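Hi R.,

Here's the chain you asked about this morning:
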Amino acid sequence: MRETSRLNLTRNVKAAAAATLAWTTLSTAHAEPRYAWVNVQPPAAISSTAPADTLASRIAPPPGFARIETPPGSWGEWLHSLPLKPVGAPVLTYTGAQKWRQDVHVAVLDIDVGKRDLQQCADAVMRLRAEWLYASNRKNEIAFNDTDGKRRAFSKQAKQDYAAFRKYMDLVFAYAGTWSLDRELKPAKLSGLQTGDVFIKGGFPGHAVLVADMAMNAAGEKRFLLLQSYMPAQDIHVLKNPNAADGSPWYGTDIGLQLATPEWNFTAAQLKRWP
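And here is the predicted structure, written out as tokens:
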């Protein structure tokens, strides 16, 4: 068992090194930075987070589990490499005030929330998906449906720089939401859960949380992390598992009738995936 653990650790270290090397090669070939918002935030909004302080580096898998490897540059690898604010950072709303509940998160993403009450739950999911496509030079794939079904594509915008992208995303946030996103995504099975999947209840109100990382043990049992924003618009944060006595953020796939998160419950039938 000890030798197996050492072998898994060695594999994970090698995989991480390979991912870093692969992304270094990719980033020199692409014009867009990996996390573009970091370069445009005003000095006062930039946290003191070190580049290595990412979701994956701070939140270790549960004992006996190893992080599920994802291809370098993929949606899943991009998600678990997201930068975090310093340990202990509060969740702030778009006004700069603290969210009234500070007991639901274990970490806060180092990404802006905007100055308007727009980037709520489904909006945060769409923001991250679009940011990954933008960073991957797949701008022509950035498109979302409005609640009335109208397709809004970034490729139709006059400018394609990052400032234009953020204005486009605010427009998407204003006219799209859980109702429209739920209908864009395709059903997924909990047994085949993947990083980047979404638990979503479309409605008025509805809610959505994003699977940001996964781990698995030798028996094939899986654990996963969830990201959310909420109402009003607020920092995207890593959720605690309310059923974990130790405050762990890792969730198991044996959810029974429902997946209980701190501020919303979902069923297995509400698991969706990007088409």
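One quick note: The CA atoms of residues 182 and 202 lie 5 Å apart.

Cheers,
M.
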